[in-house]
Specification:
The chain has about 500 residues and is of the alpha+beta class. The protein contains 14 helices and 17 strands. The chain has 4 domains: about 220 residues, Nucleotidyltransferase, domain 5 (2-Layer Sandwich), CATH 3.30.420.380; about 90 residues, Nucleotidyltransferase, domain 5 (2-Layer Sandwich), CATH 3.30.420; about 45 residues, no CATH class; about 80 residues, General secretion pathway protein M, EpsM (Gyrase A, domain 2, 2-Layer Sandwich). Helix 2 packs across helix 4.
């Protein structure tokens, strides 16, 4: 897996692989050239040779440079973009989006809905109301990245906002933060709260070109003004907000920002969550790389330490803005690569095993077998199919106890008065592996079937119950066929 974090002044590359202990192993990190102009280009020119936009053709250089920087062997690429690139980023109460997320965002940014890709990575319900964090990105930018990856023949698996990857890498879902993206000529702050989600506020006063060369007193006034605006915006956006929320610099010169007292007082550092990396990478400044690493952790289970601090009322999903079809193809590619890797190992093991078998075979081929022993062997071979059949029957009878009385009693216990049976099959007569019973049901009301299934699901004797067919008989009665699997509580002794 390779992530590329596209920034105005550089591109950060992280190559990693899942470790055997379920953690992520960092293979390499590097800094590549900036492709910011190609990413944000509004040019509509098309290259006549390739048929793709000139911006995409130029952007393909980042994948080409990545190939030169690290060894590429069937790698997936995960792209991270600064939050400032996104057309829309806000947390929205459910009543505000009754007509749908797409139409709401379209109206807010005054752009057609079909020109925007949307992700909803956070849903939080600390009280009665649901808050959703919505990211929207121009499809032109996505198309440019997709075309660039296609030009270099690499598999693109994700396009995700930096704040999502950063927060995921830290695992600090239980705390409030202001995330600062400070660039040379622009700056933006993303506010995060577990009770509300995220919103973004542009903060041009914190642009490096403007702020870092200012006298401390003047700069400190600007910093204080930004914090005041952020605190007020948080009060408006979140159902509850704390005062003096810490600022975490995602991109920017931390050392120079610290010279301002108001900033230093609220600056905080975040580190990688415990037990997610197989070894401590040699990062000079870990925060600079957390977004690029965090995006590679999208498939990590919620049982991971990443989510130990996540409140129960907060639902977290990927912020991947790639079309669903491309995400599915990427997953299939991932599975294919794993199968190939396993196959190579299995092939090697098979070759070793074959040699182990052939060596004794060469010896036994040179040994003469006595005629009496050969005759006994031939006779046994004739009897072998009969013996195997008998053993199979015995094995099946031991392994598959049908418990017909227990099963039929459970069916009757759950049955409502308005439902009858036309037939019941138990055990092998069903003819389906892992199916305990199959019953044909009859009722005047088809809703009774679903009520019956719901009642059965509460019985510990049943592992699962499902309706596989619904119809109508010649007399007008409704019919259904239900299949049931045996529950763990049925006595197997």
């Amino acid at each position: 897996m390779i992530s590329l974090y596209l920034l105005p002044d550089r591109t950060r590359l992280v190559k990693a692989t899942p470790a055997s202990n379920g953690r992520l192993k960092i293979i390499a990190i590097d800094e590549l050239s900036s492709y910011w102009d190609s990413l944000t280009s509004t040019s509509s020119g098309v290259d006549s040779a390739t048929g793709i936009s000139t911006a995409a053709l130029s952007l393909s250089g980042v994948f080409r440079e990545a190939k030169k920087a690290v060894r590429i062997s069937g790698e997936e690429f995960f792209v991270v973009l600064p939050d400032s690139v996104f057309t829309f980023l806000d947390c929205v109460r459910e009543p505000q989006i009754e007509e749908g997320v797409e139409l709401y965002v379209s109206a807010m940014v005054d752009k057609p809905a079909d020109t925007l890709a949307i992700a909803v990575p956070f849903r939080t319900r600390p009280g009665a109301e649901l808050y959703q964090t919505i990211f929207a990105l121009s499809k032109d930018i996505i198309q440019s990245i997709v075309d660039a990856a296609g030009e270099e023949g690499v598999t693109l698996s994700s396009i995700e906002p930096a704040s999502i990857g950063f927060l995921r890498a830290s695992g600090a879902y239980d705390r409030e933060f202001f995330f600062l993206e400070a660039f040379q000529d622009s700056a933006a702050v993303v506010a995060y709260s577990p009770v509300g989600g995220m919103f973004r506020m542009d903060a041009p006063l914190l642009a490096e070109e403007r702020l870092l060369d200012m006298p401390e007193i003047s700069g400190d006034i600007d910093v204080r003004e930004v914090f005041a605006e952020l605190d007020m915006a948080a009060d408006r956006s979140f159902p509850s907000a704390n005062d003096d929320v810490n600022m975490v610099i995602i991109t920017g010169q931390r050392r120079k920002f610290k010279k301002f007292k108001n900033m230093e007082a609220r600056l905080a550092d975040l580190t990688f969550a415990e037990d997610i990396l197989s070894e401590a990478p040699d990062f000079e400044s870990p925060q600079d790389w957390m977004a690029a690493v965090g995006t590679l952790l999208q498939e990590v289970s919620e049982e991971s330490s990443l989510y130990f601090k996540k409140p129960t009322y907060l639902s977290v999903e990927s912020g991947n803005l790639l079309p669903t079809g491309m995400q599915t193809n990427a997953k299939l590619f991932r599975i294919t690569q794993k199968v190939r890797k396993i196959s190579r190992v299995a092939l090697l093991a098979g070759i070793v095993g074959l040699f182990a078998l052939l060596l004794p075979a060469f010896y036994f081929l040179s040994v003469e077998i006595p005629s009496a022993l050969q005759a006994r062997y031939d006779e046994t071979q004739k009897e072998l199919p009969v013996m195997e059949a008998e053993l199979a029957i015995i094995g099946r009878s031991k392994k598959e106890h049908c418990y017909p009385v227990v099963g039929f009693q459970s069916l009757l216990t759950a049955r409502p008065d308005t439902l009858g049976f036309s037939s019941v099959k138990i055990g092998e007569s069903v003819g389906q592996k892992d199916v305990w019973m199959e019953a044909d049901l009859v009722s005047k009301d088809p809703l009774v079937f679903q009520d019956y299934i719901t009642t059965m699901s509460m019985d510990k004797n049943f592992k699962s119950a499902a309706i596989i067919k619904i119809g109508t008989d010649p007399s007008g009665f409704k019919t259904a066929t239900v299949r049931v699997r045996k529950g763990d509580s049925v006595d197997e002794k």
